[in-house]
Amino acid sequence: MEHKLPMSGIRVLDFTWVAAGPRTTLPLANMGAEVIKVESARRLDLSRGRPPFAEGKSGINAGANWVMINADKLSITLNMTKPRAVEIANRLVAVSDIVIDNMTGGVMERWGMGYQSLVKIKPDIIVVSMPVMGTT
């Protein structure tokens, strides 16, 4: 008999970065959700290149905190200022269950990824926004 994890079959589109956001989506990934972390190559998650590093070798995938808080996740880079990137993100929304972010207030809306836009793509989408400094 196959053992299914509690969040198996749930897809999370993860627009979080640095610390609190990725730590929020980590348990979802650990419990079987397919978590897709979305970053911009122009502005990668700051924890990627921060020490400590394994064997003292730095690099964008070498920061111990990055590896620890993003285990079990998939990743994609999208420049959300480009229409094609927004189109790809919208296609991912259409097949996701949850969209979560911890961006500065207003960023997701400027990208066309605010709640009102997302429910037009997928009416039953769950949206979690938790900017560290609030939304105003």
Explain how this protein is built.
This protein is α/β, with parallel strands linked by helices and 136 residues long. It has a single domain (11-129), classed as 3-Layer(aba) Sandwich (Rossmann fold). It is built from 5 helices and 5 strands; from the N terminus they run βαβαβαβααβ. It has helices spanning 20-30, 64-69, 83-94, 107-110, 115-121; strands at residues 11-15, 34-39, 73-77, 98-101, 126-129. Strands 3-2-1-4-5 form a 5-stranded parallel β-sheet, with helices on one face. The longest helix is centred in the middle third of the chain and has 12 residues, at 83-94. The radius of gyration is 15 Å and the shape is globular. The model has no long low-confidence stretch (mean pLDDT 92).
CATH superfamily: Crotonobetainyl-coa:carnitine coa-transferase, domain 1
The helix/strand series, from N terminus to C terminus, equals EHEHEHEHHE
Q: What is the count of structural domains?
A: 1
Mind describing the biggest β-sheet?
5 strands, parallel
Strand order of the largest sheet: 3-2-1-4-5
Number of helices: 5
CATH class: Alpha Beta
Shape: globular
Hey, roughly how much beta strand do the residues contain?
15-25%
Mean pLDDT: 92
How many strand segments?
Answer: 5
- Low-confidence residue ranges: none
- Rg over CA atoms, rounded to whole Å, is 15 Å
Q: What would CATH call the architecture?
A: 3-Layer(aba) Sandwich
Helix content: 25-40%
Helix-and-strand structural type: alpha/beta
- The CA-CA distance between the termini, in Å, is 50 Å
Assembly status: single chain
CATH topology: Rossmann fold
